[in-house]
Amino acid sequence: MAKMVVSLSVTPLGTGSTHLSSYVRAATEVLRELGVKYRTAAGFTDIELDDYATLAEILKRIEARLEAMGVKRLDYIIKIDRRMDQELTIEGKIAKVER
Hints:
The protein is α+β, with helices and mostly antiparallel strands. It is built from three helices and four strands.
């Protein structure tokens, strides 16, 4: 169980195309490789994490992967829901809204 849910959007700029699915796929491959729990939606990917160091590692690896694909500039949007008093999950947050 995690102590934070991070909502992450990474947008490559200057690619010459309006298609982003290959970049989203590359970023989610990084998450799979790291073994973190995540859920991709239409505009953000939610990730369950325990610490900020893991988030930093994720960003570093995504950046390296997209740079290898020719991306020269990235725009990040990061929202962090952090709990110090209890566990926090993606499903738990969604369930509270859908009740």
